[in-house]
Amino acid sequence: MYLFANAAIYIGFAVAIYSLLVITLGISTKNQKLINSGKGGTIALLVCTSLAMLSMFYLLATSQFQFEYVKDYTSSELPIIYKLTALWAGNAGSLLLWTFFLTLYTVMIVFSRKLKGNPMVPYISAILMANAVFFFFILGFVAKPFVLLDKVPLEGKGLNPMLQNPGMIIHPVTLYLGYVGLAIPFAFAMAALIMKNVDDFWIKMTRRWTIIAWLFLSLGNIFGGQWAYVELGWGGYWAWDPVENASFMPWLTATAFLHSVMIQERKNMLKIWNICLIIVSYALTLFGTFLVRSGVLTSVHAFANSNLGLYFLIFMAIAVIGALYVLMSRYNLLKRSAGEFQSFVSKESSFLVNNLLLVGAAFAVFWGTIFPLVSEAVRGTKVTVGLPFFNKVEAPILLSMMFVMAVCPLLAWQRSSVKNLRKNFLIPAILAVIAMVLMVVLGIQKAWAVIGYGVITLLFITHFLEFYRGVMARRKMTKEKPLTALYRLMIRNRRRYGGYIVHLGIAFITMGIIGSQNYDVETMKTVPLGGSLEINNYRLNYERLDQKREGINDIVYADVTVFKNGKRLGTFQPEKVFYGNWEQPSSEVAIISSMKEDLYIVLSAWEDDGKATFVVKVNPMMNWLWMGSFMIVIGALFAVWNGKYGNVTPRYTGVRKEVA
Amino acid sequence: MHDISIISMIFSAALALTCLFLILSPLFKWDTYLHLDSKNQDLATTKEALLTTLNEIEFEYKMDKISPADYKHLKKQYETEIATIMKEEEMISGTTDKDLMAEVEKEIEEQMKSYKNKRRDEK
């Protein structure tokens, strides 16, 4: 197995170099045979990475501790699912997974039916192949997933218990799918520039890829947050940790990109901006990996310190410099024939504002993340940038974004008149203000919450009106039944209505964020056996403290009966788990979840006489957050679903010049 | 030192051979040529996109997002553009038809000639 698994990696490395060279040669000599040979190389690479992955799965599943990676991340008593998912628990394995996705995507692009015979394919393949060379180099010479130990240990170190959670099974996979997915539009953009195709063909071809990559990035972040919430036991879901930021930044720029490409498709504008956005998004995926794997920043989930990050930094620098060079050399071509804004009151101008906000948010996160490094370099001390900075900067940006999202459906492309906007805006705005007054009357009095919920109310109303007016306009023409009209309206314009569903999802998430950030209540109390503690309208009766053994782990748990307004909700068991093969214990929290709020119970400590200390939190509206996440998935899938309609994008040609 | 068994050697060799086959076999195929897709920004696609635009403008007008004056202005603008494209299309199809007709006429003439010659020979 040792020979075979390593052979798969080194053969892959050789094939990647060969394919890159042969495709480049094929392009310069216009020799299709050479290009086809390189295309064959992409399949060979997929075979290599698949076999390397299968080998790793086999080694992990059968606990072959003579392999360093298997010893470092598994142990024999680990459930099989976590043995297998340990593949992405460490540096080497996760890079193997990344390389596998990269080769898979490359094959899908190279042999895509839509792109058959397209002259862009060799260029795209070459760019993706350059990525593959880098990753195979890393696998073969730096990370080395298949290293044998001199002595075979009897037992492995085991998997970090924090990672033994269903969220962790899927979180890295979705994140990597998103990261790698962004390489595709990047490769297309570069190929288009190199070939001097400055039209929107590359955008049309990568539309689905970009949305899918964006969806995976979103899922990666959401699963990460969900995991943090249920597993880390601190009651939160997002801590602006450098690694979280690393995956959030490309999400922000990719979101901006998703919107601004629509302007290019329809109005032939923002060509340079779009290319810059995709370069930045792609570079940020590499930058994130550099942050996670270099150890330059301390983080809860950074990988072990290694020089891997440096390689990513160098590769990122090469990619960015190369991309910028190509961009600058085609600058004049891109500048020519670009459309212009005609009206400040139009959908495209609202998209532009949204773009600026998203990029601004990304920059703020970037600055906050690298500031410790900058301060260390300049002043010699590492200043940590904490939660307050991010919350202070990001909250107004998020609110402004919600406002733009709320207004956007009221605007038409190219030209909306202020009069129409005023007419359409007035009633929703009045209703939103009434809602805000109601909130204040009902006791929601924190400024951020009132403004936030007010803007979200406006968003809900304008989105509802968009659906309603759409159905009405359709019915006027077709006389269909309302539901049929709604269904047909939506499937004939998947991207637009899918996008609106995503907007609603984001609104739900924001509601969850506002609720849980502004109205969470926490208490920590040491309670004697039989005693109780109260928080809001909950009463927790501490009834029993006991211990049990599960496998090699010792679990201490408390029986807590929870009452809400005097009504019994049940008995719950927050736990503290002491692992047989891991030093630090972890908390298994008890969460009693409802649409209104979560009751979050952590067993923190106990004494010999049975006294126990509990940390109890009430987190309002947490389920709204997860519900919004679900809507994002639905909306994105609806938008990319391959339907009969909506494959032609309207094209606005701009103002006709009467005189020149 | 390491568990380099015969089986793993065979599998590694098989993998190497498969990869070699995948990258070398295209080099020995005869029927390959460089596909060059002419950048066919053809009129039909533009027309279709403009018709969709017109449709969208009409829909947004019905949804009260555009003022009647703007709607009229935009509608006229895109209708003119579509009409121009249709004219161009017509001209292209017109020339093809003319060519075709000329060719058909020529062929008929030739056939008539040969028919007449034949008749003359028969006489």
Outline of this structure?
The complex is a heterodimer of chains A (660) and B (123). With 660 residues, chain A is of the alpha+beta class. Chain A has 19 helices and ten strands.
Question: What this model shows, in words?
Answer:
Chain A has 660 residues and is α+β, with helices and mostly antiparallel strands. Among the domains of chain A are: 1-159; 389-519 and 631-640, no CATH class; 521-622. Chain A is 63% helix and 11% strand. Chain A has helices at residues 2-29, 32-61, 68-73, 80-85, 91-110, 120-143, 166-194, 201-231, 242-267, 271-294, 308-329, 331-335, 347-379, 387-407, 418-442, 447-478, 482-491, 494-518, 622-640; strands at residues 521-527, 532-535, 538-550, 553-564, 567-572, 575-578, 586-588, 590-593, 597-606, 612-620. In chain A, strands 2, 3, 4, 5, 6 and 7 form a six-stranded antiparallel beta sheet that branches. A four-stranded antiparallel beta sheet of chain A has the order 1-10-9-8, covered by helices on one side. Chain A is globular, with a radius of gyration of 27 Å. With 123 residues, chain B is mostly helical. Chain B has a domain at 43-123. Helix content of chain B is 76%, strand content 0%. Chain B starts with 5 loop residues before the first helix and ends with a helix. The relative contact order of chain B is 0.05. The model of chain B is unreliable at 32-41 (pLDDT under 50). At the A-B interface, helix 1, helix 2, helix 15 and helix 16 of A face helix 1, helix 2 and helix 3 of B.
